[in-house]
Specification:
The complex is a heterodimer of chains A (about 325) and B (about 80). Chain A has about 325 residues and is mainly alpha-helical. Chain A contains nine helices and five strands, in the order H-E-E-H-H-H-E-H-E-E-H-H-H-H. Classes of the chains: A mainly alpha (about 325), B mainly alpha (about 80).
């Protein structure tokens, strides 16, 4: 028994606030019925071409880029918070800085247990990927992301009939025929859309991870690292098995590019499917059902970030070890 | 008239294709169940290392889920891009 008696948990005022919010959401769902959302795979562009780069082309601001900038601001804020607390000379940090410190320390312990003496090289890559993907996935939970945006009207034949009231009365943002003559279709283009639902972000991150793995392997083993792909060790001693080993080595090279696809589509598929689920459930059952999906999305975002980082860590530490030593274990 | 038929056929093809692509999600369900089976059996034999087993179970779950997510992505591609 501890000396200070802890207060036993009691029902508080929170349940009344939750009930109030549920009733308010029911009232608002009656006044403004939810719209069936317009979903598209590529990220929506918010502006006209701002400037043109010589080889690459036009640059337009897309809503996933806005979400990525937001995640960057949050990460830089976290880093500045901890560095300010350390520079002030505090030995034990308190509050938010302590949470960040604990997170980074947990990641470093994980890296050390897997990578051994290459932990200092591998840790920046792995921790950046984990923290960035984690914050990008969790922006989905902020109210306003994926929902607040511009009503982008396209395919209008009779602009006067395409009013806000018409759209809301018929409950859909897709093609609405009014009076049999005029057509009106509109879709909400959100200002901020989760960056992991953009294939540019996931494929870019996967390419970075795989390419840096090759560089770390080259640095750890030198030219022997290429022996993994061009396996000519047993080619001359036993020709039959040597040829098979050689072909297996070539297959490993192809496997590296499959890793890029696997990384990117795992993250993309999980988060994109989650956001579609949020849209659809929110428009079908506007009262309280989306909260359960939000809780699920919380865990899915966390798990996908950890899996991305851990796979990067495992492939990088495998690259430093090499096959000959692995067989000798 | 012909445009209407082509559009209707496209929508029909899209919906059927997406439905058939979603059958692939079956494999992921079996894989996740197997991963949980292994984890629970291991926890039954050796309850002390529950933490390690849980971590590795989550890792195995993410890998097994990945292939069913690929099938889902194909279905989404068929529905929303083509």
């Amino acid at each position: 028994m501890s000396e200070t008696t802890t207060r036993s948990w009691r029902w508080g005022t929170n349940r009344w606030m939750v009930l109030l919010l549920v009733i308010l959401s029911a009232v608002f769902a009656g006044i403004f019925p939810p719209l069936r959302p317009h979903v598209q795979l590529p990220a929506e562009l918010l502006t006209d071409p701002l400037f043109t780069l010589p080889l690459i082309g036009d640059f337009q601001l897309s809503n996933t880029l806005v979400a990525l900038l937001l995640a960057d601001l949050i990460l830089i804020g976290m880093a500045l918070l901890v560095s300010r607390a350390v520079r002030r000379g505090e030995l034990t940090l308190g509050g938010l800085a302590a949470a960040v410190e604990g997170l980074v320390e947990g990641l470093y312990t994980l890296t050390e247990s897997t990578a051994g003496k290459w932990a200092k090289t591998i840790f920046p890559w792995m921790a950046t990927i984990v923290l960035l993907v984690l914050i990008v996935n969790w922006t989905e939970l902020i109210p306003g992301v994926d929902s607040i945006g511009l009503l982008d009207q396209h395919h209008i034949e009779n602009p006067e009939a395409c009013t806000f009231d018409t759209l809301f009365r018929l409950g859909s943002t897709e093609v609405v025929a009014v009076g049999g003559e005029s057509e009106c279709a509109a879709g909400v283009v959100p200002f901020v859309r989760v960056a992991s639902t953009d294939l540019n972000f996931t494929i870019g991150l996967a390419i970075i991870s795989v390419v840096v793995t090759q560089f770390i392997g080259l640095r750890a083993q030198g030219r022997a690292y290429l022996g993994k792909f061009f396996n000519t060790q047993t080619l001359f001693k036993t020709p039959m098995f040597g040829a098979i080993n050689f072909l297996v080595g070539l297959l490993e090279a192809i496997l590296e590019s499959v890793k890029v696809l696997s990384f990117s589509f795992r993250l993309f598929g999980n988060i994109f499917a989650g956001s579609i689920l949020l849209f659809v459930v929110g428009s079908l059952v506007p009262i309280f059902a989306q909260s359960a999906v939000l809780l699920f999305e919380f865990f899915v975002g966390l798990i996908q970030a950890i899996v991305f980082g851990m796979l990067t860590l495992i492939f990088m530490s495998l690259a430093t070890v090499g096959h000959a030593e692995a067989e000798a274990h | 008239m012909e445009g209407d038929i082509v559009e209707a056929a496209t929508i029909l093809g899209k919906l059927l294709g997406a439905g058939m692509a979603a059958i692939g999600v079956l494999g992921g369900g079996i894989g996740v169940g197997l991963s949980a089976l292994g984890a629970v059996q291991a926890m039954g034999r050796n309850p002390d290392v529950t933490g390690t087993i849980q971590t590795n179970m989550i890792l195995g779950f993410a890998f097994a889920e990945a292939t069913s997510i690929y099938a889902l992505v194909v279905a989404l591609l068929i529905l929303f891009v083509f």
